[in-house]
Amino acid sequence: MSKEIGVAIIGCGYWGINYVRVFSELPNARVVVACDQRAERLHEVGQRFPGVVLTTHAEEAVKMKNVDAVVVCTTATTHFDIARRSILAEKPTLIEKPLTRTAAESEELVHLAELHGVLIMVGHTFIYNPAIERVKEYTQSDQLGQMYYLYARRTNLGPIRQDVNALWDLAPHDISIFNYWLDTKPDWVSAVGARVLGNGREDVGFVALGYPNGVVGHIHVSWADPNKVRELVVVGSKQRIVFDDINIQERVRVFEKGVTPIQTDSSNYGEFQLLMRDGDIISPRIAVSEPLKNECIHFLEAIEQGKQPKSGGKEGWEVVQVMEAIDRSVELHGAPVEVGLLHKAVGM
Ligand SMILES: NC(=O)c1ccc[n+]([C@@H]2O[C@H](COP(=O)([O-])OP(=O)(O)OC[C@H]3O[C@@H](n4cnc5c(N)ncnc54)[C@H](O)[C@@H]3O)[C@@H](O)[C@H]2O)c1
């Protein structure tokens, strides 16, 4: 039987307490320490999970002898410092999204982890969702046909964050999913933001993403929309696939419909006809499992088997590169900005 892995959870706010619960439920892990700066959060952990050591000092928690692995689930601005300490303590580290607030910080974490031979993983929870996995299978099979474009909507009334804007809060989910489905990152982005709630940060954002091979993506996020939507759509030449996280009966729907241009007269290059396909709407059966639990199991397996996680430091860094380019494009009122190349406006 494999050894029980002692886990430290740093940051036990709204999301972090879920990590305490999930790791407590897994047979090969044990939450040994929970850390938060807020006493009331530690009090709740203590009440629900007796036996877990409680502390307000992250730097001490990551160094504790019985801590074999660390989860960083604090506010985004603090990820870099805490993850850095954890890597220096040579502990495998799972860091919530976004990995860091700058691409330079992500790069530093990735290199530091390599230097110390420490596993790092980013909490791109959606890619551990079996429905997202199922859509990837469709996109990679011939059933979708040629991928034309994809789009995502993530709107709701809040919850409003004090440390990052709505783009940094919500878009990393959709970028991580798009990158996962396409196995690559975008070359450029063009983004606009609006500050409609008057709290000094973008609470609404619209982002266009240019992927290789002419595939275009679009993401709309909002903290100011009373209609809660969590939807991603892929449009291909043979199918349209919808992931709707709110529709628990039918998370994925496949519309076997599409349109393909076909050349009608080979002697005349200008002659094209549109071939319409109109088939069934399929709702595939997808076994239900909790994405966060799948993510935590994947982290433990990566530690035990010494394998690269699906969402490693590189994948987290790529999403942060896209986010930085989005920031720059918002500053430039939507001018296209290259991803990862010091965020030059395209054509400048
Ligand atoms: N993967 C997902 O689906 C998902 C969902 C929600 C949130 N998140 C991410 O999880 C992280 C936390 O989000 P949240 O909603 O729980 O926020 P939150 O504000 O509710 O909780 C953050 C907690 O971190 C604590 N904290 C901050 N700095 C600390 C430090 N230096 N040492 C110890 N504790 C510290 C705060 O006191 C707070 O309790 C964010 O990075 C967020 O983007 C991910």
Which SSEs are present, and which pair or pack?
Layout: E1 5-10, H1 16-25, E2 29-35, H2 39-48, E3 53-55, H3 58-61, E4 69-72, H4 79-88, E5 93-96, H5 103-116, E6 120-123, H6 130-140, E7 147-157, H7 166-182, E8 188-194, E9 204-210, E10 216-222, E11 224-236, E12 240-244, E13 252-263, E14 272-282, H8 291-305, H9 313-331, E15 337-338
Parallel strand pairs: 1-2, 1-4, 2-3, 4-5, 5-6, 7-10
Antiparallel strand pairs: 7-11, 8-9, 8-15, 9-10, 11-12, 12-13, 13-14
Helix pairs in contact: 4-5, 5-9, 6-7, 7-9
The chain binds nicotinamide-adenine-dinucleotide (NAD).
Residues 10-16, 35-38, 41, 58, 73-76, 78, 96-97, 123, 125 line the site of nicotinamide-adenine-dinucleotide.
What does this molecule look like?
There is one protein chain. This protein is 32% helix and 30% strand. A hairpin with a 5-residue loop joins strand 9 (204-210) and strand 10. It is built from 9 helices and 15 strands. Helix 5 packs antiparallel against helix 9 (313-331). The strands form 2 sheets. Strands 14-13-12-11-7-10-9-8-15 form a 9-stranded mixed beta sheet. A 6-stranded parallel beta sheet has the order 3-2-1-4-5-6, sandwiched between helices. With 348 residues, the chain is α/β, with parallel strands linked by helices. The protein has 2 domains: 5-125 and 291-313, 3-Layer(aba) Sandwich (Rossmann fold), CATH 3.40.50.720; 127-289 and 323-338, Dihydrodipicolinate Reductase, domain 2, CATH 3.30.360. It binds nicotinamide-adenine-dinucleotide (NAD). Nicotinamide-adenine-dinucleotide (NAD) binds next to loops.
